[in-house]
Amino acid sequence: MPLRVWFDLIRENDWKIAPSRLGLLGTITAAAGFNSLAETLCRARFSRQLADPPATDPPVFIIGHWRSGTTLLHEILMLDDRFCCPSTFQCFAPGHFLLTEAFLTTTLAWIMPTKRPMDNVAAGWHRPQEDEFALVNMGVPSPYRRMAFPETTPAEPTALDLETLPASDRDAWRAALRGFLEMLAVRDPRRPVLKSPPHTARMAVLADMFPGAKFLHVVRDPFVVFPSTKRLWDSLHYVQAMQIDSGREAEEYVFRCFDTMYAAFERDRPKLAAGQLHEIRYEDLIADPVAGMADAYAKLDLGDFERVRPAFEAQAASMRKYQTNTYQHDPRIVAAISQRWQPFIERYGYNAPTV
């Protein structure tokens, strides 16, 4: 993020930074200074292209709660060369990737780990990434701002449901997403596939912004999703936060995000046109990825599936080697999930584990 966004975030949290994170503060501040300069140069260099970006087909949005399989779907859809998606570098440098991507992804290759900190999924500058990281780096409201300051940010999912924001903030959010997609179109004019769990709570806004957009919603056993999501936030706070996360609000934050996300999702569902939303269970996708994707292509009218069937079959074969994390179920958490997330459990046919 550029300096103005970085300093706004720090001031918003009253400069409450742990002494042990001062080195990280210095590193991020230096990077923010570079980002500010690079953004100015990029805008000047690509002013003509950005003034008239290529038109693209409306996006395909992969949605679903964190740790539900959205990354897997993103990786699978990227096997279809009719689609494009933002990369990790593009999402972490949304203001200047057109200018710096080729050079910096090579120069900074050593920084990027080979695996994500929360699971066994491969990481890399050129791999598909969540556009929510681009939005937070551009300075618009996002629940991901909490990653930097988990102790001074309330256990509320800020900016998850955009209808909770003032109109001016919603307008800024829309402008930021459009601007990012325009830059992406300059780089690659194919139909974009965007993956972002927070978009699960924003379907109506996105459908209004992009008529003809498609939504592929993946769900997963909530008794697995809860501990996996908590581990996600714990790992990200450990690596990226300016504060030492006490974890005292971690469980409640997971519950509240889920509640907010699916209240908004169910509110928005009736507003979509027929053929605009398709849902798939993670467990069914893992059991037969090719059949699951064939069904999604047909229901969402994503194009000729037979063209990509061989690539999807090869991906399905490689998926058999992947080992997911396992969790010891806490009876207290199981009881809370069973009570608080009962509508979701019943709608998608899940059952509480035996503990």
Write the layout of secondary structure elements.
Blueprint: H1 3-12, H2 22-45, H3 47-51, E1 60-63, H4 70-77, E2 83-84, H5 88-92, H6 97-107, H7 131-137, H8 167-187, E3 191-195, H9 203-209, E4 214-219, H10 222-240, H11 250-268, E5 277-281, H12 282-287, H13 289-300, H14 309-319, H15 331-340, H16 342-348
Parallel strand pairs: 1-3, 1-4, 2-3, 4-5
Please describe what this structure looks like:
By secondary structure, this protein is α/β, with parallel strands linked by helices. It has a single domain (3-348), classed as 3-Layer(aba) Sandwich (Rossmann fold). It is 51% helix and 6% strand. The chain contains 16 helices and five strands. It has helices at 3-12, 22-45, 47-51, 70-77, 88-92, 97-107, 131-137, 167-187, 203-209, 222-240, 250-268, 282-287, 289-300, 309-319, 331-340, 342-348; strands at 60-63, 83-84, 191-195, 214-219, 277-281. It has a five-stranded parallel beta sheet, with helices on both faces. The longest helix is centred in the first third of the chain and has 24 residues, at 22-45. The radius of gyration is 20 Å and the shape is globular. 37% of the residues are buried. The mean pLDDT is 92.
Give me a quick take on this structure.
The chain has 16 helices and 5 strands. It is of the alpha/beta class and 355 residues long. The protein starts with a helix and ends in a 7-residue tail after the last helix.
| Average pLDDT | 92
Order of helices and strands: HHHEHEHHHHEHEHHEHHHHH
Radius of gyration, in angstroms, nearest whole number: 20 Å
* SSE-based structural type: alpha/beta
